[in-house]
């Protein structure tokens, strides 16, 4: 049986969807940051490493678009992780101006260890939802991410 949220945590019925999504984001970010502290990485650093664990060889530009940050911000984040030996950047064979990013063995180890902590955060955070509701929410979030990424891509092409 799912645990229930405290009644005092219930937001106003008039709260916008954007506000509610932001509140969930910030609460999860705080829990995630706390869980990742022992690895000395931030939530976004861990997420970048995790994405690279699933999609090896993305470019810095690919990552900046995926995380909605400037190429300069992503470059700084990647430099920090590279200095720690968690990833490497190599020139693309076909276009030397493109740097492909890959995890090092140390980075992969960190991602695998951190995944257990992130799973625990998620299990606790979403325990108040029925499994079918969580499955529906995840499907809806995937749809939204796809739509918003598509809209961002169209905006960038028109700029």
UniProtKB/TrEMBL annotation:
Keywords for this protein: DNA-binding, Transcription, Transcription regulation
Source species: Pigmentiphaga litoralis
Domain HTH marR-type: 14-146
Stated name of the protein: DNA-binding MarR family transcriptional regulator
Pfam families registered for this protein in UniProt: MarR_2
GO molecular function terms attached to this record: DNA binding; DNA-binding transcription factor activity
Coiled-coil regions listed in the entry: none
PANTHER family linked: TRANSCRIPTIONAL REGULATOR, MARR, TRANSCRIPTIONAL REPRESSOR OF EMRAB OPERON
